[in-house]
Amino acid sequence: MAQQDTDQQHGGVLPVDDEGFVIDTEETEERERAHRERGASRPITVVGNPVLHKECRDVTEFDDELLKLVDDMFASQRTAEGVGLAANQIGVDLKVFVYDCPDDEGARHVGVVCNPKLVELPADRRRLDDSNEGCLSVPTAYAALARPDYAEVTGQDERGNPIKVRGTGYFARCLQHETDHLYGYLYIDRLSKRERKDALRQMAENEPRYPVVANG
């Protein structure tokens, strides 16, 4: 996703709180830096490339190759100045995303989710936020999109441990946006035809500030 205009160890990569959600707000700078310094930045795949428009494969091998991919994703995310990145955005057909995203209280969240699934929220928890949204795969374009201002995602970390992640505000939007990617949806797919056309026009009229993979 593009940027906007009581610890309890469970054997996973990150500790969890009393409700079993990962604590992803500690040592964020050190963890993110370690990933991207090991990784190599890759160009971003943009709308129109087939890998973005189909559901990705489940991660089944939690091996060194996956760890290398995660490092490259953090490096690519930093180059593109994003707050979230799905594997298919660098052309890899696997259900994994990384994030380095603030919430609306200013807390920085850094982590990795493999095989994510959004938890369906009851109606009384579905307060919609219609803030602007952007995407590294639709560079330079933004549009208002209503999404719930709270989100929970279940999945696995990069070592295969089961995890739960939750977020509010901007971070909730990021969790929903990146999970969408891995099931073949871009945020512009949730817009009206007119709004989608306008977003693609914005993209066509401006130059991305990071390397992208040309379609065709």
Automatic annotation (TrEMBL):
Q: Where is the composition biased (Acidic residues)?
A: 16-29
Task: Cite the residue spans of the region called Disordered.
Answer: 1-39
Q: Which cofactors go with this protein?
A: Fe(2+)
Its EC number(s): 3.5.1.88
Q: What detail does the entry give on cofactor binding? A: Binds 1 Fe(2+) ion.
Q: Which family does it belong to?
A: Belongs to the polypeptide deformylase family.
User: Mind giving the lineage of the organism this protein is from?
Assistant: Bacteria, Bacillati, Actinomycetota, Actinomycetes, Kitasatosporales
User: What is the recorded name of this protein?
Assistant: Peptide deformylase
Enumerate the active-site residues: E178
Keywords (alphabetical) are: Hydrolase, Iron, Metal-binding, Protein biosynthesis
Cross-referenced PANTHER family = PEPTIDE DEFORMYLASE, PEPTIDE DEFORMYLASE, MITOCHONDRIAL
Question: Which SUPFAM superfamilies did the record assign?
Answer: Peptide deformylase (SSF56420)
The gene designation is: def
Q: Give GO MF terms, alphabetically.
A: peptide deformylase activity
Function recorded in the entry:
Removes the formyl group from the N-terminal Met of newly synthesized proteins. Requires at least a dipeptide for an efficient rate of reaction. N-terminal L-methionine is a prerequisite for activity but the enzyme has broad specificity at other positions.
Write down the Pfam families for this protein, in alphabetical order. Answer: Pep_deformylase (PF01327)
